[in-house]
Each structure stands twice: as C-alpha cells, then as structure tokens.
C-alpha cells in the first residue's frame, strides 16, 4: 500500500518489463484502463481466478466494440481456456470479439488446448494463421504469440497425419517467434517460455546442440523473473527449464560450465 498512483503509460511500461506485481500494486482501480491492465498482470502471473474477476467486471460494463471491452473479452477467454479448457462460455465470448490478429491468438490458444488433449486439430487453419502472422507487418507482440502457440500446437499434434510434413520447420518457426518478441520489446516471460518450447521441439527433432542452447537461455531468463516476481508460477517455470537442461546434458553426455 501507499504506492504513488502511476499514469497508464507508466503502468504499460512496467507491464512490458514483466513487472506484473508492480502493475497490480500501483494501479488506480477506479481507472478502467488501469483496471484492465491489472487483469492482464494477474493473467501473466498465472493467477487466473483473480484475472477473471477483473475481466468479467469490465465485460459487463463495456461493449465488445470498445477497446476496453474487446481486450477484457479476450482476457476472459484466455483465462477460462487456462482453467477450464474449451467450453460454451469461451466460445460465447469469442463470438463477441471482433475479428483481428488478437482474436487469432485466442483461437490458437483454444486449438493448443485441443492438441494437448490429443484431439484432432485443423492443420490448415493453424498453418494459415501462422503464415498470416509471419506476413502481416509491422509485427506486434501478438504476432509472436500466434506463431509460438501455433508451433507448440503442431508439436503437440505431431503424431497426426497432416502435421508430419511440417515438423522439420518447427524449430525455425519458433526462432522466428522469438525474433519477433525481441524486436517488439516483448516482456521476458514470453521469451523465456518460447526458449523452453524451442528446446523441447529441437530435442524432438534430434537437434541436440540447439536444444541445449535454448534450454540454457530459458534458465537464464527465468532465474531473475522467479526472484523478482514472487509467486509459484515463475518458480515452476524455472524448475521445469532447469530439469530440461539437466536431461539434455545427460542425453548429450555434455558438461557445460
């Protein structure tokens, strides 16, 4: 408590630096734009029960045609996808969101949930959205999210007949997503997560050296985040990355200093 009220621009700056706890502590909850940012900050920290409350409060007050209403509906759909998977609730909210590259990302998250459950996915739609994200410039953070989530979706669905021809380009596409993140000043938790996924995908492709480099990069990025943000989420991310790095070193018989 007792923190100085920040301007919305200042809060957006903190958000881009992955300082989500500071966003939550410094926001003026009576300001709808700041209220929205708090919802997204809780979402980034994996505290979906809290993010849902903030997003739902805005959804009931703002039309989907407004910037705040559209973002709140996306946030609500993303949070529900994380906790409950695909449901009529998510589908209902998605229908209210105007078509955009941001909606493509909600869609990609929904397909990723299906792929993780072993359900059949539409390969053409996933590839189509990845290509659209790659070719729509100037890039935004969300362009990276679509490619990142699309690549992981294909990796999860790799035993599916139509996915196999694309497996050889997945490491390169994940690299493209990371390049977009870096070029757009995306918060480091997204880059750390993408490097972890890149390591998994490179390992599955038999690209052991690249897998090691990505896993090390992920550990190096998660470490300060886990220290600064508190919360179990980043601690778990760090432990997962460290475990993968250890396994890769053992598989390769390599001792990296």
Key structural traits:
mainly alpha; 257 residues
Describe the protein.
With 257 residues, this protein is an all-alpha fold. 73% of the residues lie in helices and 0% in strands. The protein has 13 helices and no strands. It has helices at 8-16, 20-26, 32-44, 48-59, 67-84, 88-96, 101-116, 123-135, 141-156, 170-183, 188-204, 208-229, 232-252. α1 packs parallel to α3 (32-44) and α7 (101-116) runs parallel beside α9. The chain is globular, with a radius of gyration of 19 Å.
- Provide the structure class: mainly alpha
Tell me the total number of β-strands.
Answer: 0
Tell me about the largest β-sheet. none
Shape: globular
Strand coverage percent: under 5%
Show unreliable segments. none
Helix content: over 70%
Give the rounded overall mean pLDDT: 95
Number of helices: 13
The sequence of SSEs as H and E is HHHHHHHHHHHHH
- Spatial extent as radius of gyration: 19 Å
For the terminal residues, how far apart are their CA atoms? 43 Å
